[in-house]
Amino acid sequence: QITLKESGPPLVKPTQTLTLTCTFSGFSLNTLGVGVGWIRQPPGKALEWLALLHWDDDERYSPFLKNRLTITKDTAKNQVVLTMTNMDPVDTATYYCAHRRGYFDFWGQGTLVTVSS
Amino acid sequence: QSALAQPASVSGSPGQSITISCTGTSSDVGGYDSVSWYQQHPGKAPKLIIYEVTNRPSGVSNRFSGSKSGNTASLTISGLQAEDEADYHCSSYTSSSTFEIFGGGTKLTVL
User: How many of the other CB atoms lie within 10 Å of CB of A68?
Assistant: First the structure.
């Protein structure tokens, strides 16, 4: 059974760096073809893909946010970490991590991050 | 890159069928059989209901079906039920630097 869960601060101040952790179970990020991605959704708005880390350490980033994002993994802990620098109120959103094997088939419950001073 | 184009809202009565479109370009929807559809109820995470254009994950009702023609993918829900009322999002792999692109989402109302 594949599960994922996001964790991180619910509130960050403008210009701060956000660090989100995705803790997963039921699969290995060392498995051929598997990836873990991050997707966000501002309140009442559409989903937006942010970043993806593949089993072979290939990293992909949204070109609109590439300069602000870093995705890493801790295989021993079954975790994928996303950092986003220079946070702004427009970054207020629910952030999801998801298992990917060609498509996002399992999602975490999401974590709401509010950017406000 | 702009999001895939979806209608903002659609509606239908119980028992009817509805179709939601998802229009992209030859760099995404039209170029690859990598279209997915997600159902999202309020306050919940998206749930995969269609992958690779036409395939349903185990446990998803066969009332949901997907298709594609050219640069437009479609999700059809037949025999509408009250529980189908939700937001529906499409996505596609893209050969552009974006890698994965989502649609703007469609709110389905069951009248």
Answer: 18
Structure tokens at B93: 């792999």
- Name the nearest CA neighbour of B40 among A104, A81, A15: A104
Mutation for B interface: A47, A50, A58, most B CBs within 10 A? A47
- Tell me the Cα Rg of chain B: 13
pLDDT digits (tens, 9 = 90+) for B36-66: 999 999 999 999 999 999 999 999 999 999 9
**Distance separating alpha carbons of residues A68 and B49, to the nearest angstrom:** 32
User: What is the reported pLDDT for B2?
Assistant: 64
Q: How close, in Å, is residue B77 to chain A by CA atoms?
A: 20
Q: Residue A50: which residues within 8 A CB-CB, separation 6 or more?
A: A37, A38, A39, A40, A61, A62, A65, A69, A82, A84, A95
